[in-house]
Amino acid sequence: MTELAESPTTDRPRVDPYSASRLAITREFEVPDIHIPADETSSPWVPWGDNAAIRHLAFDVRNNKFTNILWVKGGGHLGVHRHSGAVRGFCLEGTWRYLEYDWVATPGGYVHENPGVRHTLVCDNPSGMKTLFWMEGTLEFYDDAGELDEMMDVFWFIEHYVTYCRANAIPVNPALFV
Q1: Of 71, 54, 66, 41, which is closest to residue 168 (Cα–Cα)?
Q2: If you average pLDDT over residues 56-70, what whole number do you get?
Q3: Please, what is the average pLDDT of the chain?
Q4: What is the rounded distance in angstroms from the CA atom of residue 168 to the CA atom of residue 166?
Q5: Counting Cβ atoms within 10 Å, is residue 178 exposed (0-12), middle (13-18) or buried (19+)?
Q6: Among the listed residues 139, 169, 112, the one whose alpha carbon sits nearest the alpha carbon of residue 54
Q7: Which sign, positive or negative, has the C-alpha torsion 130, 133, 139, 140?
Q8: What pLDDT is recorded for position 27?
Q9: Residue 100: pLDDT above 70?
């Protein structure tokens, strides 16, 4: 078994990374953790097209990041799109895939999407799917000719959520804004 080398000794005093002053500063400027309960009063399902809905969970305007659950209610597709930042997905229910790959996301499966890659999300499952997505940057959709059709960033997702809440007399949840 390899032994670890002993730390070199110096004449300098030991630095305490958790000094009283550091803890005081941390407490003064820290941002509290958030919790979004499972009930829909904290974050409703917002319709997205005819066959899908989004449950918004977090909006980070400083870093253009957003977290949501995408629910495709039956068979369908989202169209060709790409992301300018990384996307992480965790399949909760049902199945889905990308036309461009030979894998299928199933419950418990994790997907990492790299920035810049174009793909087409398809849900062949008649029961639909739900996937938790953590996204960074813009989401860009392309038309059949390959031309940019729509760009969606954190502010698009905020507008999607807030507009729905206001139209349905649902209070906007400030805890979603991290």
Answers
A1: 41
A2: 97
A3: 91
A4: 5
A5: middle
A6: 139
A7: negative
A8: 86
A9: yes
Q: How far apart are CA 95 and CA 126, in angstroms?
A: 9
* Residues 99/123, Cβ–Cβ less than 8 Å: no
Distance CA 135, CA 58 (A): 10
What type of residue is 36?
Answer: I
Asked whether the CA dihedral 73, 75, 79, 82 is positive or negative, the reply is: positive
Band the pLDDT of 7: cuts 50, 70, 90: low
Location of structure tokens 């904290």:
42
Tens digit of each residue's pLDDT (9 = 90 or more) over 121-156: 999 999 999 999 999 999 999 999 999 999 999 999
Grade residue 110 by pLDDT with cuts at 50, 70 and 90. Answer: very high
Q: What is the DSSP letter of 154?
A: H
Q: Encoding tokens for residue 160?
A: 């999607």
The yes-or-no verdict on residue 15 having pLDDT over 80 is: no
Q: What is the dihedral of CA 134, 86, 76, 78, to 10 degrees?
A: 110
Give the alpha-carbon dihedral of 71, 142, 62, 172, to 10 degrees: -40
Name the nearest CA neighbour of 89 among 135, 37, 126.
135
